Fold this protein.
Amino acid sequence: MPVARADGHSIALTALLEAWSQKGLWTHAFVACGQLGVDKPGFSRLFSPDGRDIFDLASLTKAIVTTPLAFELLRRGDWVADRPFRESPLVKKHPGHFADVPSTMMELVPRHLLRHESGLPPWRNFYVECGSSRRGLMEAMTGILKEPRLQNPAYSDVGFLALGILLERSYQSDIASIFYRLCKDPKWFSPGSQQGERRLVFGVDLTPDETTNRAVTSGFCRVRQRQLIGEVYDENAWALGGQCPHAGLFGTGEDVVSWLRALAASPVGSAMLRAQAAEIREGNNESLLGWRQGADPVAAAFGGGKSMGHLGFTGTAFWVTPATHQEKPDRYAVILTNRTVSGRINPAIKDFRRECLELLWQAA
């Protein structure tokens, strides 16, 4: 019977969460799966001994915040995907908005940054080099852009920080304000979706009550010498004020599910999903347009290598199957944890994700 099969998956998923909590990989977790067009998830469970439910989403910020903002500029024709930023219509119309941007940065190409194909290095400790200054970030970025580029594509926080500078100059606003406005746009998020309530917010915009009573700790930071609660784990994002294109977003599991469903139900959001699906390639884990292809041995457990989504360093992830998926179209899986409480690097997160995604795929 279908009901019995669904109950069996729920029992197995609940048991999995109990087992991994006892291993100490994380103290809090949320997992869910379902069909994008259906209101109620097939399975949803918050594992929280103290009721806290707001997680540091880490690099999901790239997929949830920065990718849609870039896609909107490409959609409007303000940027050109395969041409350097200096050739963008918006730059030609408002050159003064970009007057202080390094010329080397204006040579970057939107598609290359979104697909992590710019040749920029994966990471730099900007929190040491430039502190909280956007000006300092640009100066440090100038030095990096003068260095020889990497020969092979590399997932790059540096590239997304450059993308963020260009986004803020293009919109003439900070990235958080741009994102909050986009969430109220019915072209992007279906009417009645709750996105206008700003459920997904940058950590610095959490209310005192949310920080004190609902935010989940992401562990001890050696740089800041304190436990992090409602404060972004990534040191660069913290140093730059907590509102960044690569990290800084916080939310509950239900918030992420709501965002995915509202995106898929809207005209522009669904177009972005189709654009991501069009980038999926055979046999490897290439980047999409700001998202990732779930083709590695862990993510492939949900969608057989044909899903699209993103991972976050704190132990977060979401995956969505395209509408063209042969077996289970328009399915989603969301996993949020605070796995950084068990150490900055803990390979066990891969085992947990794989086991969890296997069960979520069966339940979706």
